[in-house]
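task queued by scheduler; priority normal; single chain, no ligands, no partner chains; default sampling; output format set to structure tokens
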Amino acid sequence: MRLSPQERFLELKANEEPYAGESRGLLAGVDEAGRGPLAGPVVAAAVVLPSNFRVDHVDDSKRLTPLRREKLHEEICDRAVSVSWVSVSERVVDEAGILNATYIAMREAIETLSFTPSLVLVDGREIPFLNAPQAAFPKADSTFLSVACASVVAKFVRDSLMADAHQKFPQYGFDTHKGYGTRRHIEALLRYGPCSIHRFSFRPVREIGAVKAVFASGEKTVPAGLP
């Protein structure tokens, strides 16, 4: 049975209450957006909510429409005790790997809150070298209120950054697929080759880029191992 927005809010809040009590009100939720795309940054957000926070329709950002995320982002930022987000570039993703880049973004988002939380609820795995107690859970963004709010902020910010990227590179359609490996995106990669915000450590980008480079150089054959 599908819960109403009000019931869903109460469920998320109830799941979080034992940890809020344990943290003496200094509880933060953290989540990321953008681990899977072939282009653009990975963004993490951390959120600390007041005990009387109430906004209906909050949920895991992937379950929300863009318009709903935009409205919730405004309300969360307006009513939260503290909100922080950090964008880690595609070059760091290439150099450090997507998992480490995600940890960097999440750790810096927590460290740039207005105070150090007593406990951090993390979506996914524990964050290495975090200077705060943490509890990590799979699907925390659909379980705990503060993590759901963090997921909304991270997703909204990243989508906005990709909309900005579309203005610079309109041929790829970043405003629609946000860098994910959709058919339209792959077709654009095949036609134009990668641009400066593509993640060259991701196999589709690396292979297409290598093939385009071969033909641009005038070589007649593609290196072994490439399509």
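post-processing summary
- The two ends are 48 Å apart (CA to CA).
- Confidence is low (pLDDT under 50) at residues 220-227.
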